[in-house]
Each structure stands twice: as C-alpha cells, then as structure tokens.
Amino acid sequence: MTALDVNFVRAQFPAFAEPSLDGQAFFENAGGSYTCGQVIDRLYRFYTQRKVQPYGSYAVSQLGGAEMDEARTRLAAMMNVETDELSFGPSTSQNTYVLAHAFAETLSPGDVVIVTDQDHEANSGAWRRLEARGMEVREWQINDETGQLETETLAGLLDEKVKLVCFPHCSNIIGQENPVPEIVAMAHAVGAVTCVDGVSMAPHGFADVGALGTDIYLFSTYKTYGPHQGVMVVRRALADRLANQAHFFNADARTKRLTPAGPDHAQIAACAGMADYVDDLYAHHFDGDASPAERTAAVTAMKRRHETETLAPLLDFLAGRDDVRVLGHPGIGNDGRRVPTVALDTKKAAKAVAESLASHGVMAGAGDFYAMRTIGAMGCNTDAGVLRLSFVHYTNDAEVEKLMTALDTAL
After folding, report:
1. Are 363 and 25 contacting, i.e. CB atoms less than 8 angstroms apart?
2. Is residue 140 a contact partner of residue 150, using CB atoms and an 8 Å limit?
3. C-alpha span between 353 and 24 (Å, rounded)
4. How does pLDDT run across 273-293, given as a tens digit for each residue?
5. How far is Cα 126 from Cα 183, in angstroms, rounded to an integer?
6. Which of 99, 207, 216, 352 is the most exposed place for a label (fewest CB within 10 A)?
7. Are 410 and 353 in contact (CB under 8 A)?
C-alpha cells in the first residue's frame, strides 16, 4: 500500500505557504476546503486570458469553451459517468431546488418521496416542500443513539408508491459513509429512483457513481479543493424524462435542461484543476498509466487510509473524556466507513469552545450546520449547536496534536 506523501500534498495548496495562515490549524473543512493551486492557476488564466463569451468563432472564445468542456469531460470520466450526465450549477442547494421542481412536474399526487433526518437541509427541505404539491413525504429516521440510517428502517417505508429516495452519502454531522449501493438496490426494487447528496463525502474522494448505481449524485466543488460550483450527475434514463427547467430551446440539451441559471464560465473551466490535482497525486505516488476512474480510485484509497490513521488518535483522545459526546460512531470501526468529520455535544457551550480553540490557533466551527433535524433527533440543543472538527487528507499529525492540546484547555 502506497503511503500518502503529505508534504507533497501540502505543497499543492497555496494556503500552507500563506503568511497570514501560518500557525493556524484548519479543522472546518466540512464547511469548505482550501483550494489547490491547480484550480487557482486555471481560474487566473481564464480571467486574464479567456474572459470573453465562450464558444464563439474567434480563437480566445474557442479556447474558453474548450476549457469548460474539458472540466465536464474529465470530471465525468473520473466519476465513471457519461459526459452529458454531468451538469454544473451555482451550488448544490440550488441544483437540488431545481431538481425538486423538475420532479414536482413529473410526479403525481399521492406519489411518495422518502427523505431522511440525517441530511443537510439542502437535500431535505426542497424535497419536503413537495408535500404541498400533493405528494406524500416519508421520513427515514436515524437511530437516535448511533445516528445511523438503518436499512431495516428503510425497508418498512418502501412500497410501490415510493418514486424517489433522497439520502446522504455521508452525514455532515455523523461522519459515517452510508451503504449507498445497498440502499439504491432497495429503492430500485420497488421502482423508485435515488438522489444521493455527496457533499460531505466528496472531499474524501470523488465517487464512482457508476459503481454506486444511483440515479442522481450531487456535490459542491468548494469542498473538493475547487471554486464555488455545484456538480450534479443525473443519469440519462432519468434526465430524459424529468421536466425541462431551462429555456425551451435547451430542452434537448442534457447539460442545460436542469440548470436554468447561466453558467459561471471561469469557475466551470477552473474545475478541471481538480482533475489536474488528482492526476498529479497519482503521478507522484504511482507508476504506470490508468483510466481516469482507476486513477481516482487509487488516489481516493490512499487519501482515506491517511485520514483514518490521522483520525484515530483524536477519537482515542475523545473517548477518554467525560465532558463531550461524539455523535455517531465513537471509534474508527472495522468497516472503513468513518470519515474525519467529528461532531461533539459539549458540556460547555459549543461556540465558547470554538472561540477558545481559535485563540490557540485552531480553526473549528460551532452551530447546527444546517443539520438541525439530526442533532435534535440525537438529543442535542439545536439552539446551542455542536462543535464540529473536520479535516481532510492534507491535515497532518502535528495539527491533530495541536488540536488535542487546545481542546484539553478549551473543554
């Protein structure tokens, strides 16, 4: 197994060479990651050399359009889907909102939509509004002790009336990867389609959507080392039967019909930098060539091993304390599904703990993180919120040590 070269990784992120951030340990990555240099370089180039209307007859316009097309083509290949199944939008929240409108025009009164109380509100609230349009909304509830979504509970909600099942790949609070292929198979067995919110999972590796089998997959690029865009994968069979949400003349264009807002040319082009970053990691760590999906899978596995090893001491530290409760699985576990997003119900006010951490050079977040239903179901005070400590593969052991030292003081 190839070990992640963390020094090489950190060299790809200008933030680690930024004097104003020197001495600061970043533990709020679930809210948004640092941006890699590959993305910044492409964004700068577009704004300085390509900032014209793309897809025109003149050279610079054609170059701009080609860079936008490159981003879509390369990300789709990494995620093992067809190029025209991937669309960009201004955010995942916006993409979900538009999708809900498309389904509202496609479903019939009495049809059932399943949502969860483990979701970020963006992948819950928009779907819940369908109830006002005559659809039935059923809530797949977490185990209020473990925070997990249990497939046995889902089985009790599924029947032939269910047309759509919406759930997260990973909760932004519980930090545990859900068994997506199993859930998708259960939904498909009753004729339903699935919408997976990948926002909290994608920072730990781009998904092989083809292998997951889901009909819709969503994530935000500002959490995957890129600009502020939302990526939406809708498989062809579903995309072609959803109601068009764009201009009438874009009804037959799969990459446009579910994103009515005009595209952000520069940010879309810069998204190709995320593919550059994955390819650079692969070239640095592995010999030989491989397909985009294979390179992505190899890099993801390497990143996940590093994250698991870096997370273990923090979870051990927290397990020995009686002044915090870890929401979700308190340890690494044996299934490899735990990611380094750790939400804590603290005896002290979460905001006060976060402020204390900041005074020690640790950047962390406190609040509900748009997951009020989740923390409420687990018995937390939704007004006070929780403390969330989240990191990714560029976090090193020294920063985790700094965090634990600061936590010991703050708590």
Report:
1. yes
2. no
3. 16
4. 999 999 999 999 999 999 999
5. 21
6. 352
7. yes
Q: What pLDDT, on a 0 to 100 scale, did the predictor assign at position 88?
A: 97
Q: Return left, alpha or beta for 46; rule: phi > 0 is left, psi -120 to 50 is alpha, else beta.
A: alpha
Per-residue pLDDT tens over the stretch 30-72: 999 999 999 999 999 999 999 999 999 999 999 999 999 999 9
Does residue 77 have a pLDDT over 90? yes
Return d(Cα 393, Cα 34) in angstroms, integer. 11
Contact 120, 369 (CB under 8 A): yes
Close Cβ partners of 200 (under 8 Å, ≥ 6 residues apart): 30, 120, 168, 169, 170, 171, 172, 175, 223, 339, 341
- Is residue 335 classed as helix, strand or coil in its secondary structure? coil
Structural domains of the chain, with CATH:
6-34+294-410 (3.90.1150.10), 84-263 (3.40.640.10)
Q: Which two tokens stand for residue 222?
A: 């500002």
CB 364 within 8 A of CB 389: yes
Query: Rounded to whole angstroms, what are the CA distances from 188 to 82, 108, 128, 165, 197?
Result: 21, 19, 21, 9, 17
**Type of residue at 248:** F
Q: What angle do CA 398, 172, 222 make, to 5 degrees?
A: 75
Helices (H) and strands (E) in the chain, counts: 15, 13
Q: Which of 204, 150, 130, 121 is nearest to 374 (CA)?
A: 121
Mapping DSSP onto H, E and C, the string for 169-200 reads: CECCCCCEECCHHHHHHHHHHCCCEEEEECCC
Q: What is the mean pLDDT of residues 170-182?
A: 97
Whether 171 and 119 have beta carbons less than 8 Å apart is answered as yes
Which of the residue ranges 17-31, 46-60, 109-123, 325-339 would you say has the lowest mean pLDDT? 325-339
Tally Cβ neighbours within 10 Å of residue 357.
25
Max Cα–Cα distance, the chain, nearest Å? 67
